[in-house]
Amino acid sequence: MTFPGSARTETVMGIPMNVDIRTALPRRELDPMIDNAFAWLRWVERTFSHTDEDGQIARLNDGRTIEQIPELVEVLHRCDELSEATDGWFDARINGRIDVSGYIKGWALERLSRALSNAGAVDHRISAGGDVRVRGSALPGRPWRIGIRDPRTGAVRRQVFANDLGVATTGGTRVVDPRTGTPQRALGSVTVLGPDLSTADAFATAMYAMGPVRARLFAHELASAEPYESLLITRAGRTMSTPGFAAYATPAALAG
Fold this sequence. Notes:
Layout lengths: L5 E7 L2 E7 L5 H22 L7 H6 L8 H16 L7 E2 L2 E2 L2 H18 L5 E5 L2 E5 L8 E6 L6 E7 L1 E7 L16 E8 L2 H14 L1 H14 L3 E6 L4 E3 L7 E3 H4 L1
Antiparallel strand pairs: 1-2, 2-5, 3-4, 5-6, 6-9, 7-8, 8-13, 9-10, 10-11, 11-12
Helix pairs in contact: 1-4, 4-5, 5-6
InterPro entries: ApbE (IPR024932), ApbE-like_sf (IPR003374)
Keywords: FAD, Flavoprotein, Magnesium, Metal-binding, Transferase
Pfam families: ApbE
């Protein structure tokens, strides 16, 4: 099937990132738009790296002079807010070092999505690893469909349908308990849906670090106070979700 618009995948932050624009715009507008999208993502990669010695986070960790970048202040402030909101389970400061990797990918995609909409590309999907931001329609009259995979088998366990949504999925041993520094091993993955991808990403990271008991309680408390719904998949394959999650998703076998 031929789709309107244009799509491209490039490796940024060490993972494939995809920008898929479905708005029917002229090629003379689409090509520069996608070029600028990846230029933005690479700027974020350079600026917020904690491993690249020239990155602003690395410089900050080493006590070196940093550039006065408004986005850097914004990200650090928001990470502090989310640390407080999760009682420290999401924390960008561990062992005296700053690492915003649990937030910055979702933030970059969220900011890019807004920029694309403002530029006229109102129908798009941006994805990077477990983070997906969609707006508009995949095709006229059809919402976007996002698959949530089983962390053990890779099979799609749920299909999420949406026209304007951030979907953040966190899993793997890279997420640790910020209080002990040890990897969390009881959950397979946590998916959070909501209006802001960067916030959903931080909440998913926090819940994954909590483990299944605390995460389930936090997910229900979050859904009662904020427009964020969650799906937890344990390493044994059991799923737990907040009631509102069903409004977006169906089991893969029923999705057609």
